[in-house]
Amino acid sequence: MAPGIASVTLARLYVQQGYLQRARSMLSQIIARDPEHGPALELLRRLAVRAETTLTIELAEENTALLRWRDVPCSAEELQLRFGTGDAALHVILLAFGRGPGAPAFVTSRRCTRARAEVLLPCGPDPGSVSACIALESPRGRARPIAVAEPVSWAV
């Protein structure tokens, strides 16, 4: 990165786009130039306790999946920092594909209200594979994925 381009504003944009490591690097450059730069120190402190949001899927009982997530930004302050909006809703969304050609897909979701949780969700009548994401629903009704799980499949 060219000298002089590092700024707290640009670091905040990186955070909102999910590039936390880039934001940390930029803030470190700012602090190296000015060790008492208050806004950079504060944002770096807040990012130090933040990890990337993760979501995993495990096949559970017949036709159900266990979804686990951690480090989801649920507070209004975190949502404002990462996404520029404090009044958005987060949802965990599951999509199960049926077995065989022409088999129907099944979609379900739950509101995500805790930073770390797990939920058992149904996968439809005859699932073949399943995927999931945590998505931010903006006040305008647009969804933006913030974490996507590796898809899993049932043995055929």
Structure in words:
The protein is α+β, with helices and mostly antiparallel strands. The chain has two domains: about 10-50, no CATH class; about 55-155, Immunoglobulins (Immunoglobulin-like, Sandwich). Helix content is about 25%, strand content about 35%. It has four helices and eight strands. Strands 3, 4, 6, 7 and 8 form a five-stranded antiparallel beta sheet that branches. It has a three-stranded antiparallel beta sheet with strand order 1-2-5, with no helix packed on it. Strand 6 (about 125-135) and strand 7 (about 145-150) form a beta hairpin. Helix 1 packs antiparallel against helix 2 and helix 1 packs across helix 4. The longest helix is centred in the N-terminal third of the chain and has 14 residues, at about 20-35. The protein starts with 7 loop residues before the first helix and ends with a strand.
Question: Could you give a quick summary of the protein structure above?
Answer:
The chain is an alpha+beta fold and 156 residues long.
Approximate helicity band: 25-40%
Profile the largest sheet: 5 strands, antiparallel
Which CATH architecture of the largest domain?
Sandwich
Overall spatial form: elongated
Task: Report, as a whole number of angstroms, the end-to-end distance.
Answer: 50 Å
CATH topology descriptor of the largest domain: Immunoglobulin-like
CATH class call of the largest domain: Mainly Beta
> What is the count of helical runs?
4
**Could you state the oligomeric state of the chains shown?**
single chain
